[in-house]
Amino acid sequence: MTLLDLENVDVFHRDLQAVFGVSLTVAEGEAIAIIGANGAGKSTLLRAIIGLTPSRNGQITFAGENITRLHCSVVSRRGIAIVPEGRRLFSSLTVEENLQLAMSRARKGPWTLQSVYDLFPAMHEFRRHKASDISGGQQQMVAVSRALLTNPRLLLCDELSLGLAPKVISDIYACFAKIRASGVSIVLVEQDTVRARSASDRLYCLLKGKVTLEGKSSSVGHDEIRGAYFGGSHA
C-alpha cells in the first residue's frame, strides 16, 4: 500500500525553482533513498513533504490525504517526522529534556523514552548532559530519537552521516532495521551512495532538482548512479 505519493511537485525558494516536477512514492514499511550532490534539491524536497517549504505545483498525498499545503505542525500530527540536517537540538536543555519535548505532542505508538534508550543504549548514560556538551554523533542519536518519540508513520532523515565518524554512522544506520520493524517507513536523503543503497529498498537520484534515476537499490549499478549523479557526460 502506498503511504506517500508525490506527483509532479515543484518547489521554489522565493523566485528560484529548486525542485522540478518530482514524482515518487513510498510504500508502507519501505525505505527509499534520495541521493544526489550538494545542491541537487534533496533537502528542499524533504522540507516540502513536511510542509516547511510549501510546493507551488503538484500534489503530495500521505495515507490517502492531500497534505500539499498543510502547515508543518499539522503534517507532523498526521504522522510524518523529520531528522533535520544539523540536528537542531535545544542546546541549553538536557538530552532528556529535548526528548520529553517531542513526547508532549506525540501520537500513540510503540516509541517511548525507554524504547529509544533501548535503541541507543549509550544515550541513557548522557541523558542528563546538555545537548551542547555532547558529541555530534551523540547529538544525532538524540535527533533520531526525538523524531521517533512522535511515533511517526514516516521518518524523513536528512544527511544523517554529515560530519560524523564512520563508526558512529554505522551504529546509527544499524538501527534502521529495528525502526522499520516498528512499522515506520523511511525516506533517507544521503550523499553517500554506497550507504544509501545498502539502507534502502529503492532509490531516486536528483540532479539540479530533477529525478535522473530511480529503481531498486540492489539492481542499480554504480555506473548508472554515477551518470545520474553527475550528468550523462560522466556516465
List keywords for this structure.
235 residues; alpha/beta; Rossmann fold; 4-stranded antiparallel sheet
Biggest sheet, strands in spatial order? 6-7-8-3-9-10
Query: What is the CATH architecture term?
Result: 3-Layer(aba) Sandwich
Strand content: 25-35%
Question: What is the name of the CATH topology?
Answer: Rossmann fold
Number of helices: 10
Residue ranges: pLDDT <50 for 5 or more in a row?
none
Order of helices and strands: EEEHEEHEHHHHEHHEHEEH
Intertermini distance: 34 Å
Q: Radius of gyration, rounded?
A: 17 Å
Q: How would you characterize the largest beta sheet?
A: 6 strands, mixed
Shape type: globular
Question: What is the helix fraction of residues, given as a range?
Answer: 25-40%
CATH superfamily: P-loop containing nucleotide triphosphate hydrolases
Average pLDDT value? 92
Number of strands: 10
What CATH first level would be assigned?
A: Alpha Beta
Offer a quick outline of the entry.
This protein has 235 residues and is of the alpha/beta class.
Can you walk me through this structure?
- α3 packs parallel to α6.
- With 235 residues, the protein is an alpha/beta fold.
- The chain has one domain: Rossmann fold (3-Layer(aba) Sandwich).
- It has helices spanning 42-50, 72-78, 95-103, 113-119, 121-125, 136-148, 166-173, 176-181, 193-199, 222-230, and strands at residues 2-13, 16-27, 31-35, 55-62, 65-66, 80-83, 154-158, 185-190, 202-207, 210-216.
- The chain has ten helices and ten strands.
- It has a six-stranded mixed sheet, with helices on both faces. Strands 2-1-4-5 form a four-stranded antiparallel sheet, with helices on one face.
- The model has no long low-confidence stretch (mean pLDDT 92).
